[in-house]
Amino acid sequence: MDRNDVTRKIINAKVSKGIKWAEVAKKVGLSKEWVTAACLGQMTLDAKQAKVVGKIFGLDENEIAWLQVVPYKGSLPTAVPTDPLIYRFYELVSVYGTTFKELIHEEFGDGIMSAIDFKMDLTRETDPKGDRVNIVMSGKFLSYKTY
Known about the structure:
- It is a single chain.
- By secondary structure, this protein is α+β, with helices and mostly antiparallel strands.
- The protein has two domains: 3-66, Orthogonal Bundle (434 Repressor (Amino-terminal Domain)); 84-143, Cyanate lyase, C-terminal domain (Cyanate Lyase, Chain: A, domain 2), CATH 3.30.1160.
- The chain has helices at residues 3-17, 21-28, 32-39, 47-57, 61-66, 84-108, and strands spanning 111-125, 132-143.
- A two-stranded antiparallel ribbon has the order 1-2.
- Helix 2 crosses helix 3.
- It starts with a helix and ends with a strand.
């Protein structure tokens, strides 16, 4: 058993029980974005959070322990994503990545946007021409140090 096995079990339980990520997040007490990432194996849950998730998805003590292990983050099955939705984010960075970089550097200076001190909010934006996906990302700016 490893973290990937636990993730598969969580997804199977989610589907079979008709569970929504927002419901899980409410019980854990954190955002749906972070809790979903944790349940999919990209974040580390503390003992209390892991017990809540374990109860929701019917995990045993060993599986709950795996939720508390620091995962190998950013692991996609291929270098270039093949899933159409995930590929669109890859395409977005390919097309707009230099624009993000240029505008962030112009506004803040030489540095990066943290993906560690980070938050995200994903909502549905109704539109008569077709609903839109609204994603707001906020990461702490970290400037490069001179030494």
